[in-house]
Structure formats: C-alpha cells, structure tokens
Automatic annotation (TrEMBL), chain A:
This is Transcription initiation factor TFIID subunit 8. Residues 14-91 form the Bromodomain associated domain. Residues 221-235 have a biased composition (Acidic residues). It comes from the Eukaryota. One of its GO terms (cellular component) is cytoplasm. Keywords: Cytoplasm, Developmental protein, Differentiation, Nucleus, Transcription, Transcription regulation. PANTHER family: TRANSCRIPTION INITIATION FACTOR TFIID SUBUNIT 8 (PTHR46469:SF1). Its main location: cytoplasm. InterPro entries: BTP, Histone-fold, TAF8, TFIID_su8_C. Residues 255-268 have a biased composition (Polar residues). CDD domains: HFD_TAF8, TAF8. The lineage of its organism: Eukaryota, Metazoa, Chordata, Craniata, Vertebrata.
From TrEMBL, chain B:
Signal peptide: none annotated. The keyword Transcription regulation applies. It holds the Pfam family TAF10. GO terms for molecular function: promoter-specific chromatin binding; RNA polymerase II general transcription initiation factor activity. GO terms for biological process: transcription initiation at RNA polymerase II promoter. Keywords: Nucleus, Transcription, Transcription regulation. The gene is Taf10. It comes from the Eukaryota. This is TAF10 factor. It is found in: Nucleus. Belongs to the TAF10 family. Its main location: nucleus. It comes from Eubucco bourcierii.
Length: 292, 143
C-alpha cells in the first residue's frame, strides 16, 4: 500500500478512502493549530498515529469491557482506556468547547461495489440459515452448474433405418466410383466415356473354378476337423443314404458314378471325407463308349 | 451508612467512607479534595448529541470495528473521535511551540512577530513526539 500502481480491490478502495479522510482531518487540525503548510512526511506520520490511536482505543476498550464479562462497551470502559493511555479526561470538555469554531470537513466516502444487473445471470442461491446476512452473497449459479449442451441421439426406428440405408447406399456408391476411377473401366455409351463407367470385368482363365473350389471359410473348417477320423466311417455310411435321398431320380450311370465316388472318397484321406457336397467331389469322367 | 462501611472495610477506624470515596486520614484535613467518583463524562456525553467532531462518525466507526469495538451508542464514537482529535492537536501545538522557539530563539525580529507562515516539518515534530515517548526517525534521503 506504499503508493504502488497495482489495481486496487474494492476493499482497498474502502480502506484508502478512509485513510484519505484521516489525512484531511489531520490537515484541518494542523491548520487550526496555526500551521500554514506541512511536510508530507509529517502529515503521514500524524495520520498513522491517529489511525493507530483510534484502533488502540477500540481494542483496549473492548478488552476492558470483556474483562468484566460484558460484550457492549460503555462509557466507563472508554474512560478507563483513555486514562490508561495517558489522556487527561478532564480536559476533554474544554477542548470540545474550544474547537467549536472548527469547520466540519470531509464527509465519508461510501463505496459499495454493486455488480450491474446486466452482468448477473440467474438466481443466486439464498443463504442457508447458519450464515449471517451481512456476508457476501453466493456467486452466480452459472459458475458452478454445468449443463451438457449435446442433443439426445435420435432413437426413432424409422429414422434410424432410413439413415442406415442411405449410409449404405452412399458407401456403395463411393466404393464403386473409387474402383472405377482407379481401375479399368468400360463404358456403356460409345462416345461418352466418363458418365457411366462400368468397372471392367476381369475374365478368368477358368471361369468355373471359383464355383467349384471351396471358399476360404470352408477351407478353414476343413483344416480344423482334419484329425477327426471317427467321422470317416459315419460319413461313408451316410453318403449312400444321402445319395438315395438327394438324387431321387438319377440315371443308372450317375448312380454308379456316385457310388464309385463314395468308394473312392472313402479310400481317400479323411480330409476329403468331410465334404458332404456331391458337387465337390472329384469328377469322374463317364465311360466313353466306343463305337465298335 | 457509616457503621456499615466501617464493618465492611478493613480501613483504620478513623477512615470514613462518605459519598463512596475512601478518604485516607491525611486527607481529612482538607489538603486534598477528593474527587467524587462518578463517571466524569456523563454530562459531557449528553452535550455530544448535537456536536459533530471533525472526524466523521463513519471513519471512526470503521477503525473501531476493525479493532473489534462495536459501538451501540453513536455518542461513544464521537467521544472517541474527539479524544483522538485532541491527541493530535496537542502534538501539533507542541510542534508549533518548537517551531516558534526555533524561529525567535535568536531574537532576530523583534518589531514584527514571526511570520505567520509556519510549516510543520519533521524536525519540529520529532522532539514534540519525543515528549510523548514516540520516537520517529526519518532518513534524510533514501535511494
């Protein structure tokens, strides 16, 4: 507080206003005594003394009052305090009458900081009963209450289905376009190449190979059940039964071929016995009848 | 009330209690007038109701509150501010005496009195405060 340039809080302003008032009072007293001017240091000294004198009277009077088990200080407490501080109490009325002609100066500064209405948001929480009323209020509720600002996700079935369908359509479209742009394309129209590109089909050398070979998933399943040889006999027993049920009206050649297939499959490894699909068995060429 | 007080107090039998003031035997001669021990400033307090001291009530009340003193009666506050005023003006008068003494010590001007412009300086204030037991030491200059 020694004249620094820092921003002062309202409490500091409060304190400084009163301090200035004391300085004015000291100056008026000096003027009344006969001084025309005074050194700054002297005025500061006397101001400090005045402030500490008042504080000391207050503290001492309070102590005397509490010493006699009371809480409200009375005139006697103050008289005793003044006597203890070396103040001649009897001269006080005379002094009061003498200084009647002194001009009354310096009204106090009332500096109550009030937040403007525009800045307050919401209702402050009222004081609980155990807090006295002269304490400051609670802060605005927005300083300690947080409400999330996201919206609830939509859970309507129809909207979700529509969303899913449109998303899948977009994904498919994007993917095909990507493949068209990065791979070979064929066009529907002769002259307009870029409008409707079709992804060029890659012809396989053996087109029916993918239809005959098992998929990756089935290959894995085959490897997993490789060691089960117990199923071998059951499979061979089941196979002719399946033949009978599946192929209701086969030709004799086919049935013979199939039965030879089952025997052949029985002689093979157990790996291939698991395959139940008749179309996946190795092809047995039909006997070619040579014309004699 | 005399026999009662004589029974209660362990005073010498000649000591009389009158008016609530214990008078030692030596005082019975009339050399020392005992002060009637009522609270001295009661009457003065009544006069204070319409008198406003130089220090505003709010300022004095502020400093008293900081010390823990809550005054129920505003006249009490005025009394205290008056006492503080008197304290300061006593010191100011002593400093003025010092200033005047320094001015006319050498007897320079007799015809006209010392010029009316007195300036309170620390050199005058320091001895005035020393009489009250307050020592102030100010450096002549500081960096």
């Amino acid at each position: 507080r020694s004249g620094s340039k820092h921003a002062t809080t309202p409490a500091d302003n409060y304190y400084l206003a009163r301090r200035r008032t004391l300085q004015v009072v000291v100056s008026s007293l000096l003027t009344e005594a006969g001084f025309e001017s005074a050194e700054k240091a002297a005025v500061e000294t006397l101001t400090e003394m005045l402030q500490s004198y008042i504080s000391e009277i207050g503290r001492s009077a309070k102590s005397y009052c509490e010493h006699t088990a009371r809480t409200q200080p009375t005139l006697s407490d103050i008289v005793v305090t003044l006597v203890e501080m070396g103040f001649n109490v009897e001269l006080l009325p005379a002094y009061a009458k003498r200084s009647q002609r002194m001009v009354i100066t310096a009204p106090p500064v009332t500096n109550q900081p009030v937040t403007p209405k525009a800045l307050t948001a919401g209702q402050n929480k009222p004081h609980p009963s155990h807090i006295p009323s002269h304490f400051p209020e609670f802060p605005d509720p927005h300083t300690y209450i947080k409400t999330p600002t996201y919206r609830e996700p939509v859970s309507d079935y129809q909207v979700l289905r529509e969303k899913a369908a449109s998303q899948r359509r977009d994904v498919e479209r994007a993917l095909t376009r990507f493949m068209a742009k990065t791979g070979e394309t064929q066009s529907l129209f002769k002259d307009d190449v870029s409008t409707f590109p079709l992804i060029a089909a890659r012809p396989f050398t053996v087109p029916y190979l993918t239809a005959l070979l098992p998929s990756e998933l089935e290959m894995q399943q085959m490897e997993e059940t490789d060691s089960s040889e117990q199923d071998e006999q059951t499979d061979t027993d089941n196979l002719p039964l399946h033949m009978g049920t599946d192929d209701s009206g086969p030709e004799k050649e086919n049935s013979s071929v199939l039965q030879q297939n089952t025997s052949l499959s029985g002689s093979r490894n157990g790996e291939e016995n698991v395959i139940d699909n008749p179309y996946l068995r190795p092809v047995k060429k039909p006997k070619i009848r040579r014309k004699k | 009330a005399v026999p009662v007080s004589a029974a209660v107090a362990a005073a010498p039998p000649e000591g009389a209690m009158s008016n609530g003031v214990y008078m030692p035997p030596s005082a019975a001669n009339g050399d020392v007038k005992p002060v009637v021990s009522s609270t001295p400033l009661v009457d003065f307090l009544l006069q204070l109701e319409d008198y406003t001291p130089t220090i505003p009530d709010a300022v004095t009340g502020y400093y008293l509150n900081r010390a823990g003193f809550e005054a129920s009666d505003p006249r009490i506050i005025r009394l205290i501010s008056l006492a503080a005023q008197k304290f300061i003006s006593d010191i100011a008068n002593d400093a003025l005496q010092h200033c005047k003494m320094k001015g006319t010590a050498s007897g320079s001007s007799r015809n006209k009195s010392k010029d009316k412009k007195y300036t309170l300086t620390m050199e005058d204030l320091a001895p005035a405060l020393a009489e009250y037991g307050i020592n102030v030491k100010k450096p002549h200059y500081f960096t």
